[in-house]
Design brief:
Length: 409
């Protein structure tokens, strides 16, 4: 019987905690399932990753697999002079370039850019899917800039598509980074009574929109927990916490709502969604947020902002019917920012927080199915096994390079 050779995987997650956490969770899963596998995670640090060090330190204390010699982290060096040239349009590509001197890129032509100037049109291609509005397209698909060193025939048929394994919801369920004051406040609320508003790592609103959200919350009478972030300065990417939220909120708002609401800065989202007091989630529809919403059985109201979030929102509202729609085609693109009025937000929150609505029942059903998928014999459990078999049977190299193999947008 031949000896099983050891294999090493290299994970290179995109910058940011929202990409690092799924990569680490995938690594922990693989190490637990295959004793002949070791994993190294290459980390690209951003200046605003204030929770990165506490997160990595918490891994070794909370999980035996992370303290194993088979699981390592390596910080990649970066060129600070290159980082100074970054802007919101080239942020991630420029940031990744700053960590290595050369990059290889394979572009391809996409002809859906013609729909950018006609956002009301729909792509009514015969299929099993609902017609997809052009205004819900991923922003990257509507960008006409750049030249592709390819042609239609080569791009379409030149190579085989890799196998995709749907492995599980990759969530950090042992997060110990929660804020004690937030948890204390939630503990004092009745089950399913709180609507939680959080818009991701990069989500923020201008003062006019903040006031509309505040008026909606106050008029709704619902208990709320609101993660309110300060918009970044020009040519920057990430928002920050307000020194004083009263500067942007309606006059007297905090005093009038102090018995029913709490306004916070950065939020430990997973910890909050896991709390029994939370009964609804107003979200930007980032994929990690969608997975956390399903895993904890908390129904969502969709407020997408950037990246692929409009496509996520469309799928949740139209295909799955598991969310309340605030504005699934909402986008933040430069100075063109729609203002959603308080009346519309209030109506959506009221529908979201109904105790026996159909959406709540559907999300509960998906919660149960997501857990079954992880059990032995479940779809995600089986997919992980197939992936491990493929890695361990690969004879071409002892090291497999997985660039963003577990990235969840």
């Amino acid at each position: 019987m031949s000896e099983i050779k050891k294999k090493e995987l290299i994970f290179i997650p995109s910058p940011g905690m929202c990409h690092l956490i799924p990569a680490v969770e995938m690594a922990k899963l693989l190490i637990a399932r295959e004793e002949h596998l070791s994993i190294t995670v290459l980390i690209m640090r951003m200046n605003l990753d204030s929770n990165l060090n506490p997160y990595i330190q918490s891994l070794s204390s909370n999980n035996a697999n992370c303290s194993s010699s088979r699981f390592k982290f390596i910080d990649l060096p970066r060129d600070e002079s290159t980082l100074q040239l970054l802007n919101s349009n080239t942020f991630f590509s420029g940031f990744i370039d700053s960590h290595k001197p050369q990059s290889l890129r394979d572009d391809f032509d996409i002809y859906v850019t013609n729909y950018k100037d006609d956002p009301e049109s729909e792509l009514s291609v015969p299929s099993y899917f609902n017609p997809f509005p052009a205004k819900c397209f991923l922003l990257v698909f509507l960008d006409k800039e750049g030249l592709g060193n390819s042609c239609y025939e080569i791009a379409l048929f030149g190579r085989e598509n890799p196998t995709v394994y749907p492995v599980r919801p990759l969530l950090n369920l042992n997060n110990s980074l929660g804020d004690k004051e937030i948890i204390k406040w939630l503990d004092a609320q009745t089950p399913y009574s709180v609507v939680f508003l959080c818009f991701g790592t990069s989500g923020s609103f201008n003062e006019e929109q903040v006031k509309e959200i505040a008026n909606a919350l106050e008029n709704s009478g619902c208990r709320f927990l609101w993660s309110l972030r300060k918009p970044p300065p020009k040519d920057s990417w990430y928002p920050s916490d307000y020194e004083n939220t009263e500067d942007v909120l309606p006059e007297g708002f905090l005093q009038r709502t102090k018995r029913i609401g709490m306004v916070i800065g950065w939020a430990p989202q997973g910890v909050i969604l896991s709390h029994s007091a939370v009964g609804g989630f107003v979200s930007h529809c980032g994929w990690n947020s969608v997975l956390e919403s399903v895993w904890f059985g908390v129904p969502m109201a969709t407020w997408p902002m950037y990246s692929e979030q409009q496509a996520n929102a469309f799928q949740l509202v139209k295909d799955l019917g598991t969310t309340v729609d605030i504005k699934m085609d909402y986008k933040i693109t430069g100075s063109n920012i729609d203002i959603i009025k308080a009346e519309k937000i209030q109506k959506a929150i009221g529908k979201l927080m109904e105790p026996e609505n159909g959406i709540r029942m559907k999300v509960k059903d998906m919660k149960e199915k997501s857990r079954l998928a992880l059990q032995e014999g479940g779809s995600s459990y089986t997919s992980v096994g197939h992936f491990i078999e493929q890695v361990m049977s690969n004879h071409y190299s002892s090291v497999q390079l997985l660039s963003d193999c577990v990235q969840q947008q």
